[in-house]
Amino acid sequence: MNKNVRKWAGAACLFAVAVSAQAGKYTFKVTNPVEGAKLTLTWNADGTEKTVTLTNGEGMIEVNGFNPQYVQMKYGRSSRTLFLEPDKDLQVSFDGETFYKNVDFAGDNAAVNRYLNTTQFAKMSFTAAKRAEDAFLHSVDSVYQANMDALNKAQLPENFTRQEQERLKYASYALLPLYQNYYKYLNNVADFTPSDTYYAKLQELSPIDASLMSYPEYREFITNAVYANVLRMGNGDMDQQFMDYLTAHVKEPKVLEHVTDAYIYDKVSRSGVDGAEALIDFYHKNVKDPALTKRFDETCTQWEAVKAGKPSPTFTCPDINGKSVSLADLKGKYVYIDVWATWCGPCRGELPHLKKLEEVYAGKDIAFVSLSCDSNKAAWEKMVKDGDMKGIQLFMGPKDDFMDKFMITGIPRFILLDREGKIVKADAPRPSEPSISKLFDELLAK
């Protein structure tokens, strides 16, 4: 080997070792620490989490072996975004009681982090999606331009600026892929399809690019963009269309893994495993991260306990007159359960449809049971009496075992049981969905 080549190679190795050995020193000072509050740092690129040990409100941590990137700093229930580099120190100080308001920075990366935590970034309320398409697109473009202007005005280092341009792009356009659904909801219309101009804009902002996966904003955007493109495919089996779209258009393994997990884990978490065999197979084919597959498999196992045909978890609750009613009291009838609360807007939105169902199937072998998970019993009593609500009105409260066993994390949730108290559907159609009447008719015909 040529001497000069050997010298160059040796120097390169020493440089690589030096770079890998460089560690950023991050110090934290918390005045008025909140008892029990932990300070954690989570690296966006791979989810690495580190806890900063605080002694009398002060702590320090050294970290190396990572590329410059955004890091989520969480203290108690609040969080802030930092930008850390392994060769630059940062000092962070804040009042534990007002962490959500103010944080001070000093050190090599102070200017970047001050920008991230003091800039009033332009944002859009979801209500902006009520606008006609041209006006909506103009609005999201304006939000993006305002944020880019703020970044350019800050005159920060080029390395950070390049990354911030990508982050701001997906933060600014976050509402774009949600436009169709929000437009229909806000304008109370059943059908609406955006134009080709809208989809061209969505396509422009949706590269399938693993290098962007370190940005949470991109991960959320690309998931929603895929869903928007699935909606464009038209009415049909959404789950099958989702799998078909990913197979045809999302080839990059990391992006494919993320979108698959985001959609299917959410679907199974909310609706269970009944009829989800194809989705579960697709998940295991495309998701290889052990932490993700463990979480998914544990969720599937939990849902196995409330599959169709299994005995339902029971309840015993007081009705509006204080009389105790249990599931066993309803044996011999189909039982349609509404888990709801007075403060829940979507729950209240279903009430007129539920009332109509009760009227249509009056005298049939269907018991309509409303289980309130309110914490305020007086509010429940008032609404039931003032609204002259029919059916079997029961007060369950917010922490009943019934909710845990059915894995109810969002309401309203509708559950349908057979005459023996066995589960027909753990996540039944809502009263506003035409499919519930069809299901009732099929069951009553047996």
Observed structural traits:
446 residues; Glutaredoxin; 15 strands; five-stranded mixed β-sheet; alpha+beta; disordered N terminus; 18% strand
Describe the structure.
Helix content is 44%, strand content 18%. The chain has 446 residues and is of the alpha+beta class. It has three domains: 22-118, Immunoglobulin-like; 127-304; 316-444, Glutaredoxin, CATH 3.40.30. A five-stranded mixed β-sheet has the order 13-12-11-14-15, with helices on one face. The protein has a four-stranded mixed β-sheet with strand order 4-1-7-8. Helix 12 (345-360) links the parallel strand 11 (334-340) and strand 12. The N and C termini lie far apart (86 Å).
Reconstruct the topology from this structure.
Elements: H1 3-21, E1 23-31, E2 39-43, E3 49-52, E4 58-64, E5 69-75, E6 78-84, E7 90-95, E8 104-107, H2 110-118, H3 133-154, H4 158-172, H5 179-187, H6 196-204, H7 216-232, H8 238-249, H9 253-271, H10 277-286, H11 290-304, E9 316-318, E10 324-326, E11 334-340, H12 345-360, E12 366-372, H13 377-386, E13 392-395, H14 401-405, E14 413-417, E15 423-425, H15 435-444
